[in-house]
Each structure stands twice: as structure tokens, then as C-alpha cells.
Amino acid sequence: MAPDTLSPTLEQPEISIDQEVQRHVREAAEAAETLGDVREEVRSRARKVIERGQSGLGDALERQGAEMEQVIRGYEGVTVDDLEDGVMGNNHIGKGDSPMNISRDIVGKTEELERTLAHESAHGEQADIATTDEDVAVIIDGEEVSSLELLEGDAERAAAKAVDGDAAAHREGQPAEVYGSGQKKLGKIIDALGEDEVESVLRKDGDRAGQIEALQGKLWKAQLERDSTGDTLGRITREAQETGHDIRELLAA
Fold it and tell me: Would you give the distance in Å from CA 197 to the centre of its chain?
């Protein structure tokens, strides 16, 4: 029988080197326990493909390994894990009993990995705040700031500074509104009191309730120094009454 020369030939889609690199990184992450393990496996794969004569892919894998080396320096022991959809990493406040871990899905995405490591590392350096996540920790210019906003805002600022060079830079796709609102509100608090003052409260153990109360007093003082009109004093007095603070004691401190 003569061959059917009219039948179309099915061509395999061409796979780019970038796609091949990401495949190798995914496979390395699936078998790894730590970020250091992923880096070493990527390096090993680069050597092997170069030995097989695939210098283009091998060079690309070496570049990927070098980029990873820069990002994970100091984080080689961080665990890679299968996390819930949308969760890029997690860490306990003040490190806690569990180590930081990172989603396998972002290991090959250099910017996301760098941002996540900085964000979760900041949580590990924080001291917990003696309120529930939803409680009002402080008030700035009449705007309530929850404990969760303080903590997530601080972590977002650390991540933005690491990746964008600007702690106030907003990233697209933040997983929850509290990340952006916390970043903005904490920025206002830092503008009022200075970064060192706020950082010391967020990262210092001890009488957490007393430290947060003192921070509130300093915020009210700063607002009155900026605007000592009766309207501002009246608003601050109402805020103190509603949150159970002794306004005279805080302003005298």
C-alpha cells in the first residue's frame, strides 16, 4: 500500500531552554528537603547536561544555580514543603518551635523566593504582641491599626526593602488586604516616630502590653505637637476613652 502522504505530520511543540530550566528546578524541589538541597541538585543537573553536550541548557542551569545561591545565602537550611494554594511560606513569630518553610512552587521564581524569605525572616525576628490579631493595637491619626497589621506590615516592608529597595513599595498580588493596609499604616507610624523607635517595639521582648501602650502615647504626643487644636485633643481624648487608656498618664510619660 502506498504511504498516505496527505496525512498531516504531528509536530511536538518546541520546548524553550527556560522551560527546561524550570522543569529541572521543579524536579529538584520535589526531591529536596531544604533550599540548600535544591541548589546542590540544580548544580548537579547542570554538570550532567553539560557532559551530555547540552551546553546551552547546562549554562542556563548554572546561571539559575548562581541566582539561587545569591538569594538563599543564609537560608540554606530552610525547609521546602507542599503548602496550601497561595501560601508561599510561613514562620512563627519570634521563630517559635517550628522552622521557617517555603513552598516548593516558588523555588524557581527568584524574585518571589527572595521576597518570601525576607517576609518570613522578619516574622522570626518579631516579638509577639499581647493582643489577638483583630484587636486594635494602636491608633494613628484616627485610624485603627490591628496587631496583625503591625506584624504583617512590618514583614511586607522588610520584603519590599529587600527586593525593591523601598520599604513602602507595594507588590501586586498580596495574599490578603491586611498586608497592604499594614504596610501603609506602619509607614505612617514610622514617619511620626522614626524607624528605630518602632523597630525596637516590634522586636523587643518584655512587657509587650506596656510597650504597645507607650508606643500609643508617643503617637498621640506626636500628633498634638503637629496639631494642638481643640479638635485634635478632643479626638485623642475620645480614642483614649474608647480603648481604656489613661490619656493624662500617657502624655506625661
Answer: 21
Q: Hey, CA dihedral for 4, 7, 8, 12, is it positive or negative?
A: negative
Strands 136-140 and 101-103: unpaired
By DSSP bridging, strand 143-146 and strand 136-140 are antiparallel
> What would the DSSP string read from start to end of 118-173?
HHHHHHHHPPPPSS-TTSEEEEETTEEEEHHHHHHHHHHHHHHHHHHS-TTPPPTT
Q: In what order do the strands lie in the sheet with 101-103?
A: 79-81, 101-103, 89-90
Cell numbers representing residue 219 in the block: 503617637
Tell me which residue has cell 518546541: 14
* Cβ atoms of 50 and 58 closer than 8 Å: yes
Most confident listed range (41-55, 97-111, 132-146, 206-220) = 41-55
Per-residue pLDDT, averaged over 13-40, amounts to 91
pLDDT band at 134 (very low <50, low <70, confident <90, very high): low
Contact present, 192 and 219 (Cβ < 8 Å): yes
Answer yes or no: are the C-beta atoms of 142 and 148 closer than 8 Å: no
pTM, full prediction: 0.86
